[in-house]
Write a structure and sequence with these properties.
Largest sheet: 5 strands, antiparallel
Catalytic activity: 2 GTP = 3',3'-c-di-GMP + 2 diphosphate
Enzyme class: transferase
Protein name: diguanylate cyclase
Organism: Marinobacter persicus
Strand order of the largest sheet: 2-1-5-4-3
InterPro entries: Diguanylate_Cyclase (IPR050469), GGDEF_dom (IPR000160), Nucleotide_cyclase (IPR029787), PAS-like_dom_sf (IPR035965), Rev_trsase/Diguanyl_cyclase (IPR043128)
Helix content: 25-40%
Structural class: alpha+beta
CATH topology of the largest domain: Alpha-Beta Plaits
Strand content: 15-25%
Length: about 325
C-alpha cells in the first residue's frame, strides 16, 4: 500500500497563489518517504492512523483501517505509555514538542521520539510522531552503564567469597548507623575471626584456606537477612551488622553461626578440614559517633573470646 498525504493548503506568497495540487503533495510525500525515520500521524481520540511514511510502512506494514497501537505495538488497546496527554494543554491547544526514548516491544529496537500536536488538513488536532532508530547508540550506552555498574560492584565485593568487602562494609555500615541514630532503633555488630586459620594454610595450602573462607561465607549468605550487612574484612576476619537487633538477638545469631561452623564439613582434596571461630558482639550506644566505636568494643570482645580459649561468643556491652 502506498499512503498519500492530502494536498496542502499553503498560503499565498507575494500576492501569488501557491499551487496546492498534486505537485506539492507529491513533493512532500517524496521528502517524508526518504527520511531515515518513522513519521506517522494518528487521531487523538480514536487512535486511527491517518498517515505513515515509507520507512514505517516497510517495517510495520499496511495501516488501512488500523489504529496506532495495533500497528506499532500489536496491542489490544491504547498503550499505557502513550504521550497524547502531554501534547495538548488543558484548553486543547498544542503544548509543544515532547522528546523521549523507548524500546519498541514489537521489533525490540530503541527509538528517540519527537511527539507534538498539529492541525491536520481537515482542521482537527492530531498527533505527529517522528521516531529515529537509536538502537546502536542506546546499546552502547547500556553496555557502558552495565560496565560501570559491574566495576562499582566489583569494587565493593570480596572476589573470593562474594561478600561485601571492607570498603562496602563501611559504606553500608555508615548508612545503617545513621538510620539507627535518626530513628532511635537498635543496631548490633558481630565480629568473627576463624580460629587457627594459619594452621590450615600451613598444613593444607592456601587453596584449602580459600575453600574454608568460601564455605564460611556461604554459611553467612544463607543466614543473614536482606537488611543485614555481612562482610569479609580481610584475611579470616568477618563482620556482620544487624539493624533492629539487640544484644540478645545478636548473641543468638553468633551462637547459631558458631554451631554451623563447628558442624561444617569442609573437604579439600580428600582431607576434611575442621573449622571454628571466635565472636565478639556489641550494640550501638548513645555516645557512639562512628562505626569504629562499635568495632572497637566488638574487637575487644573478640580478643576476650580468643583469650578464654577460642570457639566461643563474647559480648561487650557499652556500659560494661
Amino acid at each position: 500500500m502506498e499512503t498519500r498525504i492530502p494536498s496542502l493548503n499553503l498560503p499565498a506568497r507575494n500576492g501569488q497563489a501557491v499551487d496546492t495540487g498534486a505537485t506539492s503533495a507529491a513533493g512532500m510525500q517524496a521528502i517524508l518517504d526518504n527520511l531515515d525515520a518513522l513519521v506517522y500521524v494518528s487521531d487523538f481520540d480514536t487512535h486511527d492512523l491517518l498517515y505513515m511514511n515509507d520507512y514505517g510502512r516497510r517495517i510495520w506494514g499496511d495501516i488501512r483501517g488500523r489504529k496506532c497501537w495495533q500497528v506499532l505495538q500489536d496491542g489490544d488497546g491504547p498503550c499505557d505509555f502513550c504521550t497524547n496527554h502531554l501534547l495538548r494543554k488543558p484548553d486543547g491547544l498544542p503544548a509543544g514538542t515532547h522528546v523521549w526514548e523507548f524500546q519498541n516491544q514489537l521489533d525490540k529496537r530503541w527509538y528517540q521520539c519527537r511527539d507534538q500536536a498539529i492541525h491536520w488538513t481537515d482542521g482537527r488536532l492530531v498527533r505527529l510522531e517522528i521516531a529515529t532508530d537509536i538502537t546502536e547508540r542506546k546499546e552502547m550506552e547500556l553496555s557502558l552503564k552495565q560496565a560501570h555498574e559491574a566495576a562499582h560492584k566489583a569494587s565493593l565485593t570480596d572476589q573470593l567469597t562474594g561478600l561485601n568487602n571492607r570498603r562496602a562494609f563501611f559504606h553500608c555500615g555508615g548508612q545503617l548507623l545513621s538510620q539507627a541514630q535518626r530513628y532511635k532503633t537498635p543496631l548490633a555488630l558481630i565480629m568473627m575471626d576463624l580460629d587457627f586459620f594459619k594452621q590450615v594454610n600451613d598444613t593444607h595450602g592456601h587453596e584449602a584456606g580459600d575453600e574454608v573462607l568460601k564455605h564460611i561465607a556461604g554459611l553467612l549468605h544463607g543466614r543473614v537477612r536482606d537488611s543485614d550487612c555481612a562482610a569479609r574484612m580481610g584475611g579470616e576476619e568477618f563482620a556482620l551488622l544487624l539493624p533492629e537487633a539487640d544484644a540478645l538477638q545478636a548473641r543468638e545469631m553468633a551462637e547459631r553461626l558458631l554451631k554451623l561452623i563447628l558442624g561444617a564439613e569442609i573437604v579439600y582434596r580428600g582431607h576434611k578440614i575442621p573449622a571454628s571461630a571466635s565472636f565478639g558482639v556489641t550494640v550501638l550506644a548513645d555516645g557512639d559517633q562512628r562505626l569504629e566505636d562499635l568495632m572497637l568494643r566488638a574487637d575487644r570482645a573478640l580478643y576476650r573470646a580468643k583469650d578464654l580459649g577460642r570457639s566461643q561468643v563474647n559480648v561487650n556491652l557499652p556500659d560494661a
